[in-house]
UniProtKB/TrEMBL annotation:
Residues 44-57 have a biased composition (Low complexity). Residues 1-28 form the signal peptide. It catalyses: L-seryl-[protein] + ATP = O-phospho-L-seryl-[protein] + ADP + H(+); L-threonyl-[protein] + ATP = O-phospho-L-threonyl-[protein] + ADP + H(+). InterPro entries: Leu-rich_rpt, Leu-rich_rpt_typical-subtyp, LRR_dom_sf, LRR_extensin-like_regulator. It comes from the Eukaryota. Gene3D superfamilies: Ribonuclease Inhibitor. GO terms for molecular function: protein serine/threonine kinase activity. Residues 33-57 are annotated as: Disordered. This is non-specific serine/threonine protein kinase. It is found in: Secreted, Cell wall. Its EC number is 2.7.11.1.
Amino acid sequence: MQLILLSKPRTLQLFPLLLCLLLLPCLPQPLPSPSPSPSPSPASPSSSPSASPAARSLPLSPFNERLEAAYVAFQAWKHAITEDPKNLTQDWCGPFVCNYTGVYCAAAPDDPHVLTVAGVDLNHGDIAGCLPDHLGLLADVALLHLNSNRFRGTLPPSMQHMRLLFELDVSNNLLAGAFPTFLTSLPGLKFLDLRFNAFDGELPPAVFGRRLGLDAIFANDNRFNVSLSSASLTNSTASVIVLANTRLAGCLPPSIGDMADTLVELILLNTSISSCIPPEIGKLRKLKVLDLSHNDLAGELPASVGDMESLEVLNVGHNTLAGEVPEAICELPRLRNLTIAGNYFCDEPVSCLHVPLRDDRMNCIPDWPHQRSPEECIAFAHRPPPHCAADGCIVIPPP
């Protein structure tokens, strides 16, 4: 034992000098105090019941295994970045990762005495590069906000280790490939924003599943294929579903009313839906925004829409809807924006004039300004009326 003790002092004396030489470029950084946590969420460490007030008030050490792993992740990420015009990652240097721009640290949810990386926010950074596989080392991250950058490639599979991930926003990037299926296995994920990328292929039914339980789904402006069967989309418990400018297969099913308890916003504009609007849509009494514009919807606008007492925005413009606009719709107490332009409606109640924002152009309403020509309206009136089947699909009558 004595020989061992006598052999160490010289090594121990040299170690601080070696450490200083390694960290010399980063010496201007101050020692970090615990960084503020991201905005509160169910995964927020600050709300951990196991953390007593005394424990939370103690300064947390900036040195532990989790922060060492985070250091490896951020250095790999920095090397994968090819352009950083705003220099957001310029200070990603040295082991004190809680001092990095865009990095937020907090007490670990499973150990209030351990500091860990809880969130990363590089929104609107215009950063170019890719997301390295080392990203999965950030296992305690609850919020990952990367919108409005130029990240290419796809989401690394190692992100499946982010078991606390609550919000993921990678919108407005250059990401591509199939939907990252590991996302459906993240137990805490509630907010998913993949908008304005180049993802393609099928959007798995599990995205809308009750087991995953997403609260907000933004998948618009990709190249996804989405099924409108009653077993997929309408099984969702989300409050917001935005699938605009995406190819949807199938018809609006009567089961759309099954989302009545949670759905607040549904945007399916320009999705190539060829369908009737089922009367069951009137069950969505919590819905505030409904946009079904620029599709191939046919038949009439159901009077049951007048039961949607929370509705503020209704846009069914640029379809082939016909008949009369139900008066109950224009009498909805919160309706502020009504768009029925580009259809073949033949009558609109006077009560619709009281809707603050209204667009009823290019219909067939007699003595109304900016309507279709009489010839166009007569030609449409001579077409065989569409038949709406029980599943919401349009049945074309035989000639």
